Amino acid sequence: MKIIDTKSGNRLDAEGKAIIKKLKKDDPLKRDVYKDDELGENSPMDPPDAYDEDATNVDGIEYKDLSSSLKSMIDEHNELTKEAEKFEKALGEFHESSYHFTQDINEKFNEFFKYFDNHILPHNRKEERHLFPILHKKLIESGEHSPNKEQETAVDLMEDDHVKFIQLATLTFNLLGLASRLPDNHSRAITFDLAYHNGKELIELLRLHIFREDNTIFPLTQKLLSEEELEKLNEDIHSFNG
After folding, report:
1. Distance (Å, whole) CA 171 – CA 155
2. Measured in Å, how far apart are the chain's first and last C-alpha atoms?
3. Three-state secondary structure along the chain?
């Protein structure tokens, strides 16, 4: 499985199809505020069928073959996925109730945003500080990079995702707060709708990001790093305190 086509430089989705636009050029603020009901929920926020359960990891490398630090990152992903699913369920209930806050929905929203600050952001910083720099170097050395002068690798896409996580989470949180204070019902509904769709997009991006890391990034790390480098990564990851 590849994330970047080394011949064209295009980024690939989970099915291996080219993504022409780079994520770092996609601004979550630049989208239609109002979405017609007839559009349904078939959008980039919908879980696609691209997550093929039969997809093989790099060279068949599985969880049991990974070093302890990479296993711990997958374990954190599993916990993150559960929290994201609870948030997604609360978003769905909020949408179905025509954006009526209940105590349960409010608590689930608060729990997710606290989890985002206390767990997702530190997890991302851990990857950015200790995993991504050495993997980026190894990918360039092995020729797994775009043909342009910047020599982009899968690591660049992962870092772009981290930035967009923050953008989408911040936007969703702020829009929910703003909508609650708007006196006009129509404006409130439009703002809640935008918050809902941003939240859905955040969940889908998290899901795709985890899929790529678990099936491509971590196996590539196991394959390309030497035993000494993997041991150093283990020490750095396990001692990281955020």
Report:
1. 24
2. 30
3. CCCECCCCCCEECCCCCEECCCHHHCCCCCCCCCCCHHHCCCCCCCCCCCCCCCCCCHHHCCHHHCCHHHHHHHHHHHHHHHHHHHHHHHHHHHHHCCCCCCHHHHHHHHHHHHHHHHHHHHHHHHHHHHHHHHHHHHHHHCCCCCCCCCCCCHHHHHHHHHHHHHHHHHHHHHHHHHHHHCCCHHHHHHHHHHHHHHHHHHHHHHHHHHHHHHHHHHHHHHHHCCHHHHHHHHHHHHHCCC
> pLDDT tens across 199-232, in order?
999 999 999 999 999 999 999 999 999 999 999 9
- Show the domains of the chain with their CATH numbers: 71-130+159-239 (1.20.120.520)
How high is the pLDDT of residue 71? 98
Contact status, residue 47 vs residue 204, Cβ threshold 8 Å? yes
Helix 68-96 crosses helix 103-115 at what angle (to 10 degrees)?
150
What is the rounded distance in angstroms from the CA atom of residue 139 to the CA atom of residue 231? 19
With beta carbons less than 8 A apart as the criterion, state whether 36 and 43 touch. Answer: no
Closest C-alpha among 204, 128, 211, 124 to residue 166? 124
> pTM (2 decimals)?
0.80
